[in-house]
Amino acid sequence: MVRKLIGILFLCALLTPLYGQKVKYKDLFVLLNAKQYEQAEPFLRIYLADNEDNPNAYLFMGIILQEKAGKTDVLKQTDLLISQLDSAVFFYDKANKQLDEKEVKRNDEYYQAYNRRDLRTGKFGVKLSDVQFDLEKKMEALKERKSLVKELKVHYDNAESLYSKANFLYKDIQLRFGNLKTLYFRSDQTNIEDLKRIASVYDSSLKSFSSYKSISNKLGNTGYNQLLALKEIKELDKDGDSSADFTKDDLELWNYKAFSEATITKIENEIEPIWDNLNAYDVKINKLREKLTTDSVSVKEDLRMMADRMISAQLKMYDPDPFPLDIFEMKIAELEYLSEVIANSQFKDSVNYKLHADQIKSELKELNKLDSVTEKLMKRNFDNEAKDYMHFITNAYGNPIVLKSLIRTMLEFANREQARKQNTLKGLTNSMRWIVSATDSIPLFMDVTPESKFIPLVIVEEKYTAGFQFADSTVTGYFMTINPARVVGVKAEFPVDKTIFSRRKMPVTKAMSTSDENGQVFYILTFSEEKKEDKFPVTLAKIYRTDGLAWCSTFAFEMQPTELAFQIQTGEVSIKTSNSAGESKMIFVDKSGSRKDLVKQP
Fold this sequence. Notes:
Elements: H1 2-15, H2 25-33, H3 37-50, H4 55-71, H5 78-98, H6 101-106, E1 115-117, E2 124-126, H7 128-177, H8 180-186, H9 189-219, E3 227-231, E4 250-254, H10 256-295, H11 300-306, H12 309-316, H13 323-345, H14 353-379, H15 382-388, H16 390-397, H17 400-431, E5 434-436, E6 441-443, E7 454-460, E8 464-471, E9 474-481, E10 491-495, E11 509-515, E12 521-528, E13 536-544, E14 548-557, E15 560-567, E16 572-578, E17 584-589, E18 595-601
Parallel strand pairs: 3-4
Antiparallel strand pairs: 1-2, 5-6, 7-8, 8-9, 9-10, 11-12, 12-13, 13-14, 15-16, 16-17, 17-18
């Protein structure tokens, strides 16, 4: 073996200087027979340029080109590979056409690869038919391989280019919409057709890839063995934009078809029904407004029954703060306010100030809701929201300009009504601070001026008030029940000592009150924090709702009164008195106004 290698190297060294000179085929055959095709090829080409009648030389040239074709990249050097296959067939054909019995017999050493035992004679030898059959088989196989290579390349290029096209179309969707919510909400029939096109192109790419793999299996060892893995597109803004290298064995492709089909299904089966539901709900609200304005009736109960939580749940799956829900809330808030106004209008002739004030407060509560939601709407990115909900807006309002104008008008209405109602409430609140008699106004608040004719000492909200009335140099205790109309109801006056309870001594004058559960009997106790003859002067008046003043008694207590209570069982009044040392005494006054007993409390 070593000797053979040395001989080949020697021959290469011998032939190398012969470039441009005549090459002897006998010397060249040594390299060819040793399959040193890379070293032999340049010399063989030189030889063939000068010799066109050597079929064995053509045969080996065909073998060399076939060998080279087996090493050429089927995908990256396809044109070169086809050229090599064509050239191999060309040289095999040249060899086949020049071969005859004379050639085979005369140069049988060149065809030893075809040396076979003759089954009939038992002798070894080379047959022309064997050589020609082999050449024809080779040419047929190479032609078939060429056809498969061409087909392989077509399907490969189609798979790659179609995937790139699907990738390009997907990135266009990605660029236009940015995220899935926007894609779902802003898609129209044109966008759906775009998605269908992506799915179709991608599907064609996979079919071409499948055909490529099938042909690759027929070709045998191509140097490539791509294993396909499909990746799911979960987020439009994060997935699907990267390209793919189809020459890699681990070939990962984004599943554009699954994404497109899932998106179309979502739009058609979930998003489009949402638009229909939104439009239907808006129509219902409009009908209730028509009912309210036409029949002047409250629709609050209708609104309560119409509440559709399904729409909210559907939308919030895609949008945590859906724009249409604020639109509905605004329109519903207006209907609730107008319903409140209509419901309250039946009491418009009432002189009950508190009723009217409460009604105004309830109306303001509804107005505040309307103001709040319209303010929120005005702060939203309207242009962006309009793009997301264009289907709803165009069907319900014609165009975004109309809706924007409606929101602005509603906010102005809410602000205008709030100002008007607040002004009305202010007037009512002021009126409720006084009881109006024919000639006087009695305050129902404690912070009166020192010069006030009436100085209240007790105010029990919406029930009664008591205090002192000053006229010239006289002072009289007064009691009045409070009614919603703020006109004089039950009124009683009781005498007090003007030397003890003068205007100057009002800062040290205190009072407390009590009554029975039914509000038929009232007790007003007034006392001074200044002692007289070392005791605290006290006045206790008993007043009946039906008969007015029953009696008014004066007392002198050793300690200041701290609690006043009506004993229902006995009809007596208990007065707890205490001092700064923590001592206390209970004093009882009977039905007639007499002090009954004095008990020291532990």
